[in-house]
Amino acid sequence: MTSALPAAVKATGVDKVFTGSRGEVVALTGVDLEVAAGEFVSLIGPSGCGKSTLLRLIADLETTSAGHLEIFGKSASQARQDQDYGIAFQQAGLLPWRTVRDNIGLPLQLRGQDRRRRADRVSELTALVGLEEFVDHYPDQLSGGMQQRVAIARALASEPRLLLMDEPFGALDEMTREYLQSELTRIAAETKAAVVFVTHSIPEAVFLSDRVVVMSPRPGRITDVVTVGLDGQRDEALRESPAYFERVTAVREALHGTQVDRPNER
Amino acid sequence: MTAAEPRTLPGWARYVAPIVVGVIGFALWMLYTSVLGAAPRMLPDPVSILQELVARWDIIWADMMVTGTNALVGLLVGSAIAIVLAALAAAARPFDGMTAPLVAALAVVPIVAITPVLNTMFGASSQFGRQAVAGLAAFIPVFVNVLRGLRQTRAVHRDVFRASGATPDQTFRLLTFPTALPYLTTGLRLASSLAVISALVAEYFGGPAEGIGTAIATYAKSGRADLAWAYVAGGILIGLAFFLVASLLERLASRRTSA
User: Which of A19-23, B92-96, B167-171 has the highest average model confidence (pLDDT)?
Assistant: First the structure.
């Protein structure tokens, strides 16, 4: 799938070493990854495999120790300052003293966009995530799932071509989670943004992704890439289909086959 | 009065209960002073105090303004200095290291005890000594609370701001400051009471012959119990006014801090 556009993410030989009081910890080593524009890629692996670290490197919330990282052909730092990506975390991270409207508009405000254009964009976004009736509510008046939808709307505010998500549904109940997964595939299709999605759920990764990147700990590295190749509509019927189960099994085998020691055996 | 309902009072009781306590207290006081006539001479009955408060309201008000102004000037200046120093301490580790022992030392000094020194330093006709005492007393709780508040930003919020390319100035205005605001108002509430108490007590240690504290001391010594107590009531009114305004600010600032 080559296109004229530069890749959303291009990582070449990326290492990340954390230096702490107890010496050096190698969080990531020799990571090569390319995410095409508009592609949905999940990072999956056990705790300590560096999947969140990789996402934070792409977001320029951490800096690489070695290797080369480009976002749409720019440095990660430049891409961050240009708001080329939007980001959502496991915690919604909404500002409790701001309404839903002002939380969603925050990235636009930081960019210096005037109030009226902000209001237009915010009403588009609340429609996109289905929160039109709640624009004047405060975060503490919303459920966890609704807060996470606000966080996703905020991440999309400046129309990024790349969406970074760090276990955004990890703290939600299963019902809400499946609902938001369907919503996310719809939103990703509508916005045509590339998505890098960190998760520890195999079904979630398979349901959402074009490709699933399997990672392994000690030291954190990419061990396998599973192409999901389930084209077309991501809907509830897909969750029941044999093709879906087959891909889930493929990812599970990729995870366990390469895993030397499992973290829960300690 | 059926017993059953545990702990939670019905709505009306929350207002009636303190009034009942007040009425009982008033009755006992009247009984002790007027009916039994057993009270010491310096404890008049509450009605006489109230009459004196109304009759002498002009001079009591004038003295309330002096003490209140001293407390207010001290509170504002002390808090302003505290906010600036706390901001510097939060921004720069070395500065924090320098101020921490100073603030700890200041916190254990009985501040009103240095009033005679200040009065002598700035002259017996100046209110500055009293204002300085109120300012020092207000400084500590504001500094401690603001410094803590400036360190309460959550990691996920900092990540969101950084990821959106926020400048340090924007991060301070839109994240660090709003996060610290409830801590600031808590500090101000604590400081407001301390400033009033300090400004008033400082008057016992000399200085100009104006103010609530000076008047209480004067009339107590000359045996005018009714007027001395009426001035005490004036002091209570100042403290109440400061406390209510500060509590209101605190409540406004901490409306939305959960989630």
Answer: B167-171
Q: How many residues does chain B have?
A: 259
From B99's Cα to the closest Cα of chain A, the distance in A is 27
CATH classification at residue B145: 1.10.3720.10
Q: Could you give the number of structural domains in chain B?
A: 1
**Quick one: tokens of A239?**
């969750």
Q: Which burial class, exposed, middle or buried, applies to B2 when counting CB atoms under 10 A from its CB (0-12, 13-18, 19+)? A: exposed
Which residue range(s) make up the domain with B58?
Answer: 46-253
Check B257 against A85: CB less than 8 A apart: no
Is A140 close to B259, i.e. CB distance below 8 A?
A: yes
Domain assignment present for residue B172? The answer is: yes
- Give the long-range contacts of residues A79-84, CB within 8 A, separation 24 or more: A79/A162, A80/B162, A80/B163, A80/B165, A81/B165, A82/B165, A83/A107, A83/A111, A83/A158, A83/A160, A83/B164, A83/B165, A84/A160, A84/A161, A84/A162
Q: Measured between CB atoms, does A113 come within 8 Å of chain B?
A: no
pLDDT, tens digit, 9 for 90 and up, residues A170-216:
888 888 888 888 888 888 888 889 999 999 899 899 999 999 999 98
Q: Does B158 touch chain A (CB under 8 A)?
A: no
- Spans of all domains in chain A: 1-78+207-266
A79 to chain B, minimum CA–CA distance in Å? 9
Stretch (H or E) spanning B213 = helix B212-221
Among A224, A220, A230, which Cα is nearest to A212's?
A224
CATH of domain A1-78+207-266: 3.40.50
Q: How far is A223 from chain B (nearest CA, A)?
A: 28
Give the model's confidence band at B2: pLDDT under 50 very low, under 70 low, under 90 confident, else very high. very low
In a domain, B14, yes or no: no
> How far is it, in rounded angstroms, from Cα B228 to Cα B33?
16
Count CA atoms closer than 13 A to B13's CA, side-chain side: 6
Side chain identity, residue A32: D
Please check whether residue B90 lies inside any domain of the structure. yes
Q: What is the pLDDT of residue B257?
A: 60
Assign residue A198 a region (left: φ > 0; alpha: ψ between -120 and 50; beta: otherwise): beta
Give pTM, 2 decimals.
Answer: 0.79
Nearest residue of A to residue B162, measured between CA atoms: A61
Give the residue from B231, B146, B244 showing the smallest Cα distance to B192: B244
- Produce one character per residue of B205-234: b if its CB has 16 or more CB atoms within 10 Å, e if not: bbbbebbbbbbbeebbeeebbbbbbbbbbb
In a domain, B52, yes or no: yes
